[in-house]
Design a protein that fits this description.
heterodimer; A: alpha+beta; Immunoglobulin-like; 5-stranded antiparallel beta sheet; disordered C terminus; B: alpha+beta; Jelly Rolls; 6-stranded antiparallel beta sheet; 4-stranded mixed beta sheet; 10 strands; transmembrane (chain A); membrane (chain A)
């Protein structure tokens, strides 16, 4: 009898380990999480406009119906990425999430102190390379370092009334998630024969 | 034989305790970091890299995308100011002021987190369109029947949830949420 009790106790301890494992692993294996849901809207590496949140057609749960959204799933395996988007005058914000759906960075139009988005996302290693080899063309960009290799960026743009939906959607549709990033590997003007365009 | 039975018991206990407790925890409201002001609750850490593993797991299960700390802060209410569960069959008045924010929106959802289709074509109010009293405060009526002034229609008789999103607010991002005053949710009446 006492021996069975020990086994039950062992089972409870093992149950605790299972509990922790489930909680920690769930974000990587969930099939209804934001990362997976956003994959429905198109291929990775480009922004896709989400349909406006209306009854019955919410692209993701609990999105604000007063906002227009565009999302881009990205990978930093092939180097840093650069996000460029012209934005409306009104409130907008951009947030960067990791593969597990946790927010790693966010910014709104006022804290950006500019009317458009020009954001370079790099891993810590890529960031170190960028610091060593600064790219002049990125002077105006906001360069952020995120501890992720895969993730997604989500732009929110406030739509004050339905007549403005068209404009917000046009701007979000033109958002670029793989804007040209001058190569950091090739220092500029090394080859004198290289023609400048 | 005895050993096999004991091992089977241990494994059964482990599975029940492990999966059961995980499901129990994830089906409830988020455990950690809740900030409650009046009828409203926010989870400021949800939108930061410091989100706890339970929050991460819960977000992964629902597919929600939280507001980042640099974007704003969302307060949700499932009960009125008196503590009674919000129900669509009742009429409520959301009245008062919001904490400082450049922009806010008030949205109503049904129990499953969906917006409700209604003839008035309205699922939310934002701070610039809401009609205000002379002192700058506002009253939004949440009801199944048409109301004068700001009417936020619901169509379900069952549980509803209100979400007040504050955009670009000093409350989000690091600074502690002090004694902010949230709008009151008063029950006007139930059938």
């Amino acid at each position: 009898m006492i021996r069975t009790l020990f086994y039950v106790l062992g089972g409870v301890l093992l149950g605790g380990i299972i509990h922790i494992a489930i909680i920690l692993l769930l974000p990587d294996f969930a099939n209804r999480d934001a990362w997976t849901s956003l994959g429905r809207f198109g291929p990775d590496g480009a922004f896709h406009r989400l349909p406006m949140s209306e009854p019955g057609t919410e692209p993701l749960p609990y999105l604000d119906p007063q906002m227009a959204y565009a999302a881009c799933r990205f990978s930093l395996d092939d180097g840093p990425i650069r996000i460029k988007a012209a934005m409306p005058e009104d409130f907008w914000s951009i947030a960067v999430f990791n593969r597990r759906g946790s927010n790693v960075y966010s910014l709104n139009d006022r804290s950006a102190e500019r009317a458009d988005i020009d954001l370079v996302i790099a891993t810590p290693v890529q960031m170190a390379q960028l610091r060593e080899n600064p790219i002049a063309a990125l002077d105006q960009s906001i360069v952020i370092e995120v501890p992720v290799t895969r993730g997604f960026a989500l732009i929110r743009s406030f739509v004050a009334d339905p007549t403005l939906v068209g404009r917000a959607e046009a701007l979000l549709g033109a958002a670029d998630c793989s804007a040209e990033l001058p190569s950091a590997d090739a220092p500029p003007a090394v080859d004198p024969g290289d023609e400048k365009r | 034989m005895r050993l096999l039975i004991n091992i089977a018991i241990a494994i059964a206990v482990a599975l029940i305790v492990g999966f059961g407790s995980a499901a129990l925890v994830l089906d409830r409201e988020r455990l950690f970091g809740a900030v409650t002001r009046g009828a409203w609750t926010a989870w400021p850490d949800t939108g930061s890299p410091d989100a706890d593993p339970y929050t991460e797991a819960m977000l992964a299960r629902t597919g929600e995308v939280p507001l980042g700390a640099g974007e704003g802060l969302a307060f949700s209410a499932d009960a009125d100011s008196a503590g009674a569960r919000l129900r669509g069959e009742c009429t409520y008045r959301v009245t008062g002021q919001t904490p400082p924010a450049r922009l806010w929106t008030l949205t109503v959802y049904d129990a499953d987190g969906h917006l409700m289709d209604n003839p008035a074509n309205r699922t939310a109010f934002h701070s610039r369109e809401v009609l205000r009293h002379e002192d700058g405060s506002f009253t939004v009526a949440v009801s199944r029947s048409a109301q004068p002034g700001n009417w936020l229609p619901v169509t379900t008789p069952d549980a509803i949830r209100l979400i007040l999103r504050l955009y670009d607010t000093p409350l989000a991002g690091g600074s502690r949420i002090g004694a902010v005053v949230m709008p009151a949710i008063e029950k006007v009446g139930c059938p």
